Fold this protein.
Amino acid sequence: MLKLLKYLKPYFWSVFFLILSVGVQVFSTLRLPSLMADIVNNGIVTGDPNYTLAVGLKMLGFTALSALASLVSHYLSARIGAAFSRDLREDFYKKVISFSISEIDKFSTASLITRTTNDISQVQSAVMMMLTMLLRAPLMCLGAIFEAYRTAPNMTWIIALGVGLIIFFSIIIIASVMPKFKLFQKLLDCLTLLARENLTGLRVIRAFNNEELERHKIEKSNEELTKTILSIDRVFSLQDPLISLVFNSVTLLCIWIGINNLETDLSYLGNMIAFVEYAAQVIMSFLILTMLFVVLPRANVSAVRLNEVFNTKSKITWKEKTLKAPEVSPSVEFNNVSFAYAGADENVLSNISFKANAGETTAFIGSTGSGKSTLISLVPRFYEPTSGEIKISGLNIKDYNKDDLMKKIGYVPQKGVLFSGSVNSNITFGNPKANQSEIELAAKISQSEEFIKKLPEKYTSHISQGGSNVSGGQKQRLSIARAIAKNPEIYIFDDSFSALDMKTDKKLRAALKPKVKNSVVLIVAQRINTIKDADQIIVLDNGKIVGKGKHFNLLKSCETYREIVKSQFSEEEFRKELNHAA
């Protein structure tokens, strides 16, 4: 928690004036009981109305001053707390965005969402309480004890007894709920994960008629979370009656002793009233402190979770500046590259070597799990190779500045990803400076133009979050248009034509060819027809290259490739391909 308090540094003067206003509030509040005692002893008992009025006006003045100081302190604490959480959230988001895919997988998306929202809110609430109550309560407590001793020293032991009982009860309560706070955060992560998973996979759930199964999972997780919350609330429900018992007992004890003293000294009446108020202030101060001792450990759990993210160093580090100028002609080269996921026993890729030159299309094909998508994910440094070297335009990718490398790459994922906005904003996502003619050209090449023109507002038509208001094929074509509009040196298509019919696939590739004549094109595909005309086809099997060459050469030399072709072609078509290869 203390590590996160560095976000208060920019607001030093606001914190200073907050402390000052809290001090004024405490001073004003502590003056009231002694003034009340003065009214009773020197005004009411002696029957002097003028004196009573004069002291009463003083009390009114201190009350107004206390109210004003309270208003200022609450305003400043709210302002500081909001600014604190804003800065913290911004830095947290920047940290998460800097992570490689490995770090994202380590924490899970659901957990990162919970930390960004709930955990930061918990810390913000704790900071706001610290800025007001944590300052006010100790000052009020010490001041009230001093004034109580000065007013009626023979009854001070009653305050010590009341405070001791409160501390005893508070320790029991805190010890009971602290382990449950950690469990609460874990269960909240789990519920967020299930909710996100179900909402994103709703179509699959309905298609397999598994709503009841998923509902049962949510209910089970929700039931565990509810039980934990109720368990915490049951313990906290003991706090108010216990505090009331202590407070009322202390008050009665003060009155009983005070009445006995009144038999010998009637002027003790004011002192007794003042002492009771001071005792109440001491007990309330300790009550606030015990509340803080509950809130702060809970916030500390959240702070630990936030610091876990801040303290995590990404496995991928970037140069501040690209070390030297890359070659003019773009290329992608793998030299004995191997890769294994964190915690995995075996490599996903082993000793991968190839070179893809400008003006050439290099395609990757293989069975499911052969490592195709993982391989091309290494090019934009989504993951770091376990061993080996990857060069972009003759320069090791580790020697690039992040912006310089990403400017060279146009990436199209297997699952089209769109953002809330317009058709235009999605196509220009990688190139905000693209003009309308460039946008329309990208749409035309990607075969998006036809359906865009049918939209109500054409290129300014709204796209819902995640592209939920367009079909899978349309989403994929817009993703391809986004890469084309960027006009990169390297195009990466990760099975990006899978949602297209054969006719659209063929037209798109034909339109794309002149556009990419000076670029490197990397394609992962499952369909032979998509990659049949590629300049270089790399066949993967269990993370290893088992074939490299053109379509007809691989038909003759690579058994794995031949089996893939045979599985997709009819017997007659397959024989024709073999005859042509011969």
Remarks:
- The radius of gyration is 36 Å.
- The chain has three domains: 2-310, 321-408+490-582, 412-487.
- The domain at 2-310 is CATH 1.20.1560.10 (ABC transporter transmembrane region fold).
- Residues 49-98 form the longest helix (50 residues).
